[in-house]
Design goal:
The strands form five sheets. The chain has a seven-stranded mixed beta sheet, sandwiched between helices. A six-stranded mixed beta sheet has the order 9-8-7-10-11-19, with helices on both faces. Strands 1-5-4 form a three-stranded mixed beta sheet, covered by helices on one side. The protein has 15 helices and 20 strands. It has two domains: 274 residues, 3-Layer(aba) Sandwich (Aldehyde Dehydrogenase, Chain A, domain 1); 185 residues, 3-Layer(aba) Sandwich (Aldehyde Dehydrogenase, Chain A, domain 2). The protein is globular. The protein starts with a strand and ends with a strand. The protein is α/β, with parallel strands linked by helices. The structure holds nicotinamide-adenine-dinucleotide. The site of nicotinamide-adenine-dinucleotide has 32 residues, from helix 7 and helix 8.
Length: 479
């Protein structure tokens, strides 16, 4: 008998196998061995899940509850997450190698915060009355849109899933979630907890499987789906958009990035290096928002490189379950091959790689890359590993131009002590999120998304409400 943990789909309030019994392994990147056997869904399983979500939307209580009732259940759901924080954190760490200290203290807490924030946002949101038409009363309504397909990536499994399902549910929709095949475990547990918290069966469904020609593609192509929210690679976004075009389904996309950080000589350099290293190496660089290109004013370039290399060499690599570990293994063998391939190619193109030693396995040592030609792939493509290229610049204009020389536009950072320069440069950077002398700080009311190939639309606060509801205008003759 297999000792592997079994993880099923979650459809209509129950854990279930695939209709044909198909499974796929989930591999623990620390041990490099399969730890779970996961249901591998196909079009039939997706159809079951969408049918369940459709029935829950068309005839179930969820979209018909008062907003206060829905919000109260979502707060209870958030309580359940926090009550199962250790268990949920360990599932993500086993699936994709992120340090347990972070999945526990950051991701589960943020996931609960996602649910609470949208529960409150939906409760507090108001519609408008449009006066000025004697004899007529004109007002707006925001109504649940229907069945939401949510397709999520592996880099913050629980956090990314809740960032999608929290607004979808809060505004009265029902959901089919397709988590990444590399990190499926927390999603099924999440859906079980939703039902334990009192959400009606069918409101949140989970189907596991692969993307192209698998459950992902079947879900975003399914005619019973009304909206598609997707986070993942830009190239995948193109495929999802083509699929969603049939039936004219709205899409919200959070895609790849190639964030630049600009360090001016007038910045607090120790702080700049500390923040920039965190932005490049945290989660082993597997962050869409990562600052993966560092542009440094020439007069302080040498000093910043030295400080960065020192910092990179002192990060603790190891077993992500160890509390002191700062950098875990990359999420999969395939991803490890991709990142190390980028580094080999960069070295072949003349770049110099400055890094410490990585343990045997799927770790990559945090690496500072200097002297890479600006047209090298490592400077242009999303590496999604603990890799930071560093480039000198001479003028503010040159720095802004270099930062914007990418088709992506998700994140950017500026380090300076001059207020006017901070505002000026923040205004010139073509990115959806600009941090000045900091990183990570988020307000869930703020628009989140990317310029260019980093996404379509914005989520967060009222932006999520606009996407996850259908706005309606009612004009009434009261004359
Ligand atoms: P991915 O695009 O490979 O996969 C994402 C999800 O899409 C997975 O669930 C996958 O199974 C599914 N999928 C793949 N092909 C599909 C298809 N044809 N139809 C439907 N679904 C399909 O991305 P990934 O490797 O899991 O995640 C890393 C990427 O996500 C990086 O590019 C990163 O920048 C991006 N990301 C962006 C944000 C953001 O907020 N902008 C956040 C996190 C991650």
């Amino acid at each position: 008998m297999s000792a592997l943990t079994r993880i099923g789909h979650f459809i209509g309030g129950e854990v279930t196998d695939s209709h044909d019994g198909a499974t796929m392994p989930s591999v623990d990147p620390t041990s490099r061995a399969a730890w779970a056997e996961v249901a591998r869904g196909s079009a039939k399983d997706v159809d079951r899940a969408v049918t369940s979500a459709r029935e829950a939307f068309d005839a179930g209580p969820w979209p018909r509850m008062t907003q206060n009732e829905r919000s109260a259940l979502l707060h209870r759901f958030a309580d359940m997450l926090l009550g199962h924080a250790d268990e949920l954190a360990l599932l993500d760490t086993r699936d994709m190698g992120r340090p347990l200290s972070l999945t526990r203290a950051n991701d589960v807490v943020r996931s609960a915060a996602n649910l609470r924030f949208f529960a409150d946002d939906a409760r507090l949101a108001a519609d408008v009355s449009l006066p000025g038409h004697p004899g007529h009363h004109i007002y707006t309504r925001h109504e649940p849109a229907g069945v939401v397909a949510a397709v999520s990536p592996w880099n913050f499994p629980l956090m990314q899933a809740t960032w999608k399902i929290a607004p979808a549910l809060a505004y009265g929709n029902t959901v089919v979630l397709k988590p990444a095949e590399q990190s499926p475990a927390s999603a099924t547990r999440l859906a079980e907890l939703a039902v334990e918290a009192g959400l009606p069966p069918g409101v949140l469904n989970v189907v596991h499987g692969t993307g192209p020609a698998g459950a992902g593609e079947a879900l975003v192509s399914h005619e019973g789906v009304d909206l598609v929210t997707f986070t993942g690679e830009t190239r995948t976004g193109e495929a999802v958009m083509r699929a969603a075009a049939d039936g004219v389904r709205a899409v919200s996309f959070e895609l790849g990035g190639k964030g630049a950080s600009i360090v001016f000589a007038d910045a607090d350099l120790d702080r700049a290096v500390s923040v920039a290293a965190d932005a490049a190496f945290s989660n082993a660089g597997q962050i869409c928002l990562a600052g993966s290109r560092l542009l440094v004013e020439r007069s302080v370039y040498g000093r910043v490189v030295d400080l960065l290399v020192e910092k990179a060499r002192h990060l603790r690599l190891g077993d992500p379950r160890e509390p002191r570990t700062e950098v875990g293994p990359l999420s999969s063998q395939e991803h490890h091959a991709k990142v190390t391939g980028h580094l080999r190619r960069a070295a072949g193109e003349g770049a110099v790689l400055l890094a410490g030693q990585a343990p045997d396995g799927w770790w990559v040592a945090p690496t500072v890359v200097v002297d890479a030609p600006s047209d090298a792939a490592i400077c242009r493509e999303e590496v999604f590993g603990p890799v930071l290229t560093v480039h000198p610049f001479d003028t503010e204009e040159e720095a802004v131009h270099a930062a914007n020389a990418t088709r992506y536009g998700l994140s950017a950072m500026v380090f300076t002590s001059r207020l006017a320069r901070a505002h000026r440069v923040a205004g010139q950077l073509r990115a959806g999120n600009v941090w000045v002398n900091c990183f990570w700080v988020r307000d869930l009311r703020a628009p989140f998304g990317g310029f260019g190939r980093s996404g379509i639309g914005r989520e967060g606060g009222g932006h999520s409400r606009e996407f996850f509801t259908e706005a309606k205008t009612v004009v009434m003759d009261v004359g």
